[in-house]
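User: My collaborator sent over this chain with a note saying "see what the structure looks like." That's all I know about it. Can you take a look?
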Amino acid sequence: MERKWLYIVAVLMLMLHSCEKLNTDLPQETKNTAGSSEENITARSVDDIICGDISTDTTVWVCGYIVGYVNGTKMSSAQFAAGNKLSNILLADSPLETDYHNCIPVQLNTTPAASKQVREALNLSTHPENLKQKVGIYGTITSYMGTVGMKNVTKHKMLEDDFDYENYNSTPNNNGDGTENNNDETGNNNDGTGNTPTPQDPENYDDNDLSGKDPLSIDTYTVSYMRNELTDYFNENAIASITECTVKGYIVGYVRKNKNNISQTSFELTFPVESNIVLADSPNERDYNNCIAVQLSTGSTYLPARNALNLSAHPENLGKYVIVLGRIEKYMGALGVKNTREYTFPEED
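Assistant: Without extra context I'll predict from the sequence alone. Here is the result:
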C-alpha cells in the first residue's frame, strides 16, 4: 500500500512539473515582459528588421510601437493616426515616429484563426486606443507594401511602455523639448543626469598595433582590425557576437536610409540618418571596405548615444574621433557594432 502511494505522489509531481508555464526565450537582447509575470518574450527591434539583420522568411518576435497604418499598397501612403483600416498596422521603435522609412508594415489577416485573433486585437479601426502602444508580434519577415515587413502573424503581447520620452531627441541639435543639448567639447552630457556614461580613460586603451594579440583580450578594437583579423576569427570559430566591447575610429559617414549594407555608405551629409554612423581608422577614408557601421538604437538604454552621435542632429560630428561601447556582431553585411550605449570623444591619439 505504501509503495502504491509513493507511485501516485511521483506521478502527480511529474504532471505538475510538466504543466509549468514555459518562457518564450527567443534569441535577442531586448527582453520585454508581457502577460503574466511568468512569461517573457525576447524580441527583435524594428531597426533590426529594416537593417536586414533578420533574413526574409524567418519567423520571429518583433517588438515595437503601433504608430499608424498604410492606407493603400505602398509605404508612402502611411497614416500616423488611428483610422478605419483593419488589414495592417505600422510598427516603429519609437511611439513618436512619423517617418515611414523608420517603420515596418504588419499585415493583419482574417485566416487562420490565430491571425484573425491578432487582427481583431491590434487593428486601429476597432481599437484606436492602440495607437502608440507597445506590442510584441510573432510573424514572418517578408516583403510587404514595397518594403520589408511582417506577414502571417499568429501571436501578440501588449507590453509595458518603457520609452524614454524625456530624453527623446526629435529635433536636430536639441533635446526634443526645445532646449539645447548640454554637451561639452568632449561630447559628454553635463546636465547632471548621468545619462551619457563615459567608457574608461582613453589612456588605458591599446594603441593601433593589435597584430599578434588575442582577439578576446583586446581592450579597444580598431576598424581595420575588425574588418580583417577579427572577421577571420569570427568566421573560423563560428562566433556570433562579443558583448561589452569598445571600438575607436573617425565618424566618416552613415549607411543610407532603407539600405542594409555597408556598401551603401554615404560619405557626404546629403541625407543623414539617425539610426547609424560609419567609422574608419582615418577621417579621410572613402572606401567602405575599410569601414564599419555602428547602430544607434532608440531603446532607453541607447538613446543618449544615438542623440549625441547621429549625423542628422549633429553634422559637426563628421570627421570626429570617437570611442563607442557596444556589442560586436554582423551588422550591415559586415562585422559592426550594435546596441551602442556609451561613447566618448577623446583627444586624437
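A starting point for your reply to your collaborator: Confidence is low (pLDDT under 50) at residues 4-39, 169-206.
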